[in-house]
Amino acid sequence: MAASGLLRRAAALIALAVLGSGCAHGLPGARDGTLRIYLARHGLTDWNAQQRLQGWSDVPLNATGREQARALAEALRGIPVRRVYSSTLSRSLETAEITRDRAPLESLAGLRERHLGKFEGVRLDSDSVVTAEYNRRVVDPDDRLDGGESLNQHLARVRAALDTILARDRSGAILIVGHGGTNKLILRALLGLTNEQTQVFSQANDELYLIEVDHGERPRLWKRVTEANLKDL
Description:
Layout: H1 3-15, E1 35-41, H2 46-49, H3 63-75, E2 81-86, H4 90-99, E3 105-107, H5 128-137, H6 151-168, E4 172-178, H7 180-191, H8 195-198, E5 208-213, E6 220-223
Parallel strand pairs: 1-4, 2-3, 2-4
Antiparallel strand pairs: 1-5, 5-6
């Protein structure tokens, strides 16, 4: 599918998401045997608020991030989530712990954020030259960012983590609490997107996606729409 067609499809799917405080678990087309992957980003950290690149730096949630995790738990209330997955970084793990209720939690190193090498801790708005260099290099599939991880390396381990998850969970509802860059690659792997197409996604710390997966069919993407992100429609 051409990029423009894919974007029109994504916009249509977003427009169909459930409005308000309800979550997208009773959508048309859902049926027995469907795997419903709720995909959340970890709550806010101080480095998020400062626009600092985190990568593998283990920055904890701040008070706002913990409140966002509690709001995520409320949004998922009543949904029979059978298992929760997080990365091994504390901002993802703590978000998952707050959210999971009684569901078992497993942390996977493959769901960690991309290692950003020399750019970890950089504040993107502090030096326009460094910001321009980062923006140019971060989308190069083979650039390891001076001691970090290439996009292709990141994608390979995300795919491996997804293979582990999909082999275990073939139906029902699961929650993955990931990271901004990692969640883009989860969508890329599940939806068959190109590197360029993947860049249109930008998930906020309090946004929730749902991917419905049925054997032999193209996965369906939904986004929970609230007052905070009505501008995305």
